[in-house]
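Chapter review: from sequence to fold.
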Amino acid sequence: MRATATAAAPSHIGVAQQVGAPNADGDRDIAALVLTCDLEEIVAARHGDPGECIVEISDASSIATTPDDAAVGEDDMAAKAARLLTSYTGHPGGVRLSIARHVPTAAGLGAGAADAAATLVACDALWGLGLSRGELQRLAMRLGADVALALAGGAGIILGQGEEFSPLLHVEPSHWVLVPASYPVPAPDVYAQMDKLRVQEELNGREDPGQVGVDSDLVAALRDGRIVDIATRVSNDLETAAVILRAEVQEVMGAARRADAVAQVVSGTGPTVAMAAEDRDAAERLATVVADELDVRTIVVQAPARGAHLLR
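The token string follows.
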């Protein structure tokens, strides 16, 4: 039996998202087109006492963590993934997880989903479970469509209330610059702000915000690598709400336009801004210009990325 296992899983960029109105229970339908990218979370697993599941943030993290970030508990996605594996297989469990954070949290990039996907792969190897990729994928779906995406890699469409996932069979590589905000925005705050805006004005241009879907032309543009066509079709119903809650998001969007980004969009609930570039060199130049103008951190990534995989 191996003593440790380490796995990596990709973050993601929400290139298009439509959000429906809340139902009586407060739930709402979404339709999101999402690309994984090569900014990865890394989870190292080692044996613990039976039934134990301890999660800590590694000193190898490349992003600054606050005490709140480091305070992980039973609701942490990595812990949920480990417990799901023990429940599914009957393994007694017992694991200590160390997460090297490279993906900003509460930033619309799926850091928690990446942690969960990497945990599934790492614990499967650590405990010698020998689960098939299909079994792991089904377990990931029980944790959420974003976890299934991080496990599968590539690109996909997330529908319903985040529980439906349809992978795209092929997407050409594209290059992006990510600009996380200086501090996160809780997702419930973004949804609440969007709802206020919809009451005040029909912001999204649809008479019925409950009708959501994915732009087939955007799917085709991503499939074929037509980056210029992508520029005219990226969108996010939550973008204006994120801008209101974090004024710096608007500053980043403006800097992206001035630097000739092909496209810019708030990823997921934000407040990260994703900027598309024609190629890797253009992305590097774009990242430098925006970083110099605004004195912000920029991250150059390629999409789509490989799904969760064992490193060692």
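Two observations follow directly from the output. The CA atoms of residues 83 and 93 lie 8 Å apart. The chain has a mean pLDDT of 90.
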